[in-house]
Amino acid sequence: MNKLQKIFENKKAFIPFVVADDPDFETTVQNILTLADNGANIVELGIPFSDPVADGPVIQAADLRAFKAGVNVNLVFDIVEKARESTNVPIVFLTYTNIAFKFGYEAFCKKCHELNIDGLVVPDLPLEEQGDLKKYTDKYNISLIQLIAPTSDERIIKIAKAAQGFIYMVSSMGVTGKREDFSNELSPTIKRIKEVTDVPVAIGFGIHSVQQAKDLSELADGIIIGSAIVDLINKGEDLAEYANKISTAI
Ligand SMILES: O=P(O)(O)OC[C@@H](O)[C@@H](O)c1c[nH]c2ccccc12
What ipTM describes this predicted complex? Predict the structure, then answer.
């Protein structure tokens, strides 16, 4: 079985997201280790991008901090390499298409393979356009994570059938960032997905409180938290304590 998929077998997965090089190299390495030590089952590491169309203000600000620190793709790879000296926690990259394209799809995937990166989330690359990249994610044994949005309606089945690793269920329309309410459609949508695939489903977008994490984890196989964590890191608050609370609640 696919290595990412296996993680979800006996537990709900906690998938925190951090932006690479926000605010600097050492802090990012330390944050990855802290998350791994405090219940993260997969770490989603964002490669900063100049035009992050799916990102809300909190993550855009983090991208800017990373750019200020001088981030580039090779530096992100170096961050992972450094973290890999101390942890085997599964890591997936959140990357926009152009980053991988400019690096060269094959070179990018090869490097991911060398660093033991398990998957790629590429929010601006729809299923129909994934062929060129998929050739190399397949070759280097990296899961191409599919996103299913509330709007993907008639495409849900098609996307679910193509899924590998896990499915990223986008909780609601719009950009990343805290939300207070979640759609009643989430549960029926996940049920429809589960009729056609065994690939686990993790919900992301908007989750910040422990109660939300707990409630949404009951609908799915895992939860993804980005902006709340990025915000906490920016404010210098206790990442270990928050990660611990979330991972024990789900
Ligand atoms: O920040 P939120 O609302 O907790 O959502 C997770 C999200 O940040 C992370 O998975 C992510 C960051 N950038 C993205 C772009 C598209 C899809 C997902 C993402």
Answer: 0.99
Ligand 1 center–CA 106 separation, angstroms: 25
Measured in Å, residue 55 CA sits from the centre of ligand 1 at 7
Select from 18, 176, 246 the residue to mutate for testing ligand 1; criterion: most ligand atoms less than 8 Å from CB. Answer: 176
Testing ligand 1's pocket by substitution, the residue of 42, 91, 224, 233 carrying the most ligand atoms inside 8 A of its CB is 224
C-alpha 125/C-alpha 129 separation (Å) is: 6
Residue nearest to ligand 1 atom 13, measured at CA: 55
pLDDT digits (tens, 9 = 90+) for 92-140: 999 999 999 999 999 999 999 999 999 999 999 999 999 999 999 999 9
Exposure class string for 98-123: b at 16+ Cβ within 10 A, else e:
ebbeebebeebbebbbebebbbbbbb
In this prediction the pTM is 0.97
What pLDDT, in 10s, does the model give residues 17-68?
Answer: 999 999 999 999 999 999 999 999 999 999 999 998 899 999 999 999 999 9
Length of the chain: 250
